[in-house]
Amino acid sequence: MSTTEPPRPQPPLACHWVREPDGTRWLVPGCIPRLHDPDADACTCPTLADQLAETQGERDRAQHDYTGLRAWTDAIIAAVHAHPDGKKIMKDAADRARQS
Questions:
Q1: pTM for the whole structure
Q2: CA 57 to chain centre
Q3: In the 8-state DSSP scheme, what is residue 10?
Q4: What is the pairing mode between strands 15-19 and 25-29?
Q5: How far, in Å, CA of 29 to CA of 35, rounded?
Q6: Nearest to residue 18, comparing CAs of 27, 29, 9?
Q7: Nearest 5 degrees, angle CA 50-CA 51-CA 56?
Q8: How far is residue 43's CA from residue 77's CA, in Å, rounded to a whole number?
Q9: Which residues pair with 12 in a beta bridge?
Q10: What is the DSSP letter of 26?
């Protein structure tokens, strides 16, 4: 590269997404501090690793909630089946579910 060539523009160091109420996403180059000061060194945008960790945490919490709900539902069904009128109760519940 020649010393007389102008420097090439550098891509933004980071970016963030803005989500509209309708779900549309817009990529905004530069972090919030860079919007106010393009030369700022600080970056407030989460890294891909941070976003992945957060998403995995959300997935783990959802799986934990599902597992707990599934265990609770299984316990209720087992208790109903153990009841002397369990078959009748389950048949009545199935009939009501079909009606709604």
A1: 0.48
A2: 9
A3: P
A4: antiparallel
A5: 9
A6: 27
A7: 100
A8: 52
A9: none
A10: E
- The type of residue at 25 is R
**Residue 79, token pair as written in the block:** 């208790």
Match 């890294």 to its residue by tokens: 47
CA torsion, ordered 64, 66, 71, 73, to nearest 10 deg: 160
pLDDT at 70 over 80: yes
Q: Cβ(13)–Cβ(43) under 8 Å?
A: yes
CA pair distance 22, 69, nearest whole angstrom: 31
The token duo for 45 is 């945008």
- In angstroms, what is the C-alpha Rg of the chain? 28
pLDDT digits (tens, 9 = 90+) for 36-66: 665 666 667 777 788 899 999 999 999 999 9
- Alpha carbon of residue 8 to chain centroid: 37
